[in-house]
Amino acid sequence: MGGLGLVLVAVAFLGLINVAYDAMVNQESRTASENRARTREIALTVAEVADQPTRIVAVARAFEQLRQEMFKELDYHSRVRVRIWRQGQLLYNSSPGLPDVLPGHAAPRPAGVYGWVSCIENNAAAGLLVERSHEIDDAWMFTWSGARFLLTPTLISLPFLLFPAWLIIRFGLSPLRAAADAIEQRATTDLTALPESKYRELSPLIGAINRLMERLNQRIEHEHEFLTDAAHELKTPLAVIQINAHLLQSRCGSGEAPERLLEPAIGLRDGVTRATHMVHQLLALERTGTDSGDRSMPMIAFDSLLRDRVAAAAPLALQRNMEIELCAAGSYPMEIHRESMAALLDNLIGNAIKYSPDGSRVMVGLAPYSEGIRLVVSDQGPGIAPELRERVFERFYRIPGGDDAGSGLGLAIAERAATRNGGVIRLDSRADGTGLVVIVDFATPS
């Protein structure tokens, strides 16, 4: 039960304390009530033998012995005095050592002296007068014997109280747990409304959650629209600046412009190229994250898409005298979001080419494994240290000390695209400890 169980135990404990406190506060009234009942019981019993003084004494002693037997195991030391008069003559006194007048409970008394409550029953017809005085022993409440006497019934009944409470809480909160499980099992991007609850008490909570998810969904959509619109708006001026940078550079090279402008022209071109690449990466990141809750993806031949993306990256590899080796024997149809999967392949293959030295080889493999299909992209570059392999999936994170002109979005795009297509991406190194191996596992339905 967790926290609810602790609450129940705390409530039960407070209840036990309340029982003990109530017993101490009401000790005088309880003792007075008991004393009246006992006095009347003795008076009625001895009235039947009023004409036999010996029997009267025997009956009184029997009552005293019975009381001692009752409280023997409780270690209850509270004293009782019973006195019986017959025809005005004291016939029986159970405690002759006590003073004739006993201290009252409310009256001031010396330390260590407890109060008494007294009751008198007068039977004029039989000529009998019975007086019973009972000592109020407050200190007994603080002994182990007193605590056991007061709390044992409550402790024995506690399991019978907690078990029904546990059942009520367990079954009463089951709809809330079901709603929590439904939310827990959702993807992080699934903000669709929860089904309405048939329980009136739970309906306000479900309604509040649905309204919150609706507001979050609207906010995310606005952010997506802003990012997409901004990226699209930037593409046109960046293209114009890039054309002018190329024109300026070509004129500097042909002598139409001063040679001193050549270096700024090259810097301008490189900066615009990097900015254009960043815009394209932002658009790709946006596309890999939108509509991820849509499961109606078409069936596409993964191996065919992979061949197309390798062919698209081949010219870049040829410029650096690099080889791309593709190993994808067989056909692998999958439900794929084509645009995001293309972004995944372009970034992984592009990074492998970008960070590998000239004349090296990039290996791209697609093969089945125990739970589905595995994509492997291996290069001969510097690799990534094991302690940084989690952080490189963060947006705009770049490895310290690197001199590349990347945007820090490539692996973030790859991870989001893999997640959108039901894959899990991880990084490793080659068998000889060099390079970087990117592994993407796509689990397929059995």
Give a written overview of the molecule.
With 446 residues, the chain is an alpha+beta fold. The protein folds into 3 domains: 3-153, no CATH class; 203-287, Orthogonal Bundle (Helix Hairpins); 295-443, Heat Shock Protein 90. Helix content is 51%, strand content 15%. It has 10 helices and 11 strands. The chain has helices at residues 3-25, 27-47, 53-70, 144-172, 174-184, 203-254, 262-289, 302-319, 338-355, 410-420; strands at residues 80-86, 89-93, 116-123, 128-135, 299-301, 323-327, 333-335, 361-369, 372-378, 423-428, 437-443. The chain has a 5-stranded mixed sheet with strand order 6-8-9-11-10, with helices on one face. Strands 2-1-4-3 form a 4-stranded antiparallel sheet, covered by helices on one side. A hairpin with an 8-residue loop joins strand 10 and strand 11 (437-443). Helix 1 runs antiparallel to helix 4 (144-172), helix 6 runs antiparallel to helix 7 (262-289) and helix 7 packs antiparallel against helix 9 (338-355). It is rod-shaped and about 145 Å long. It starts with a helix and ends with a strand. Mean pLDDT is 77; it is low at 108-113.
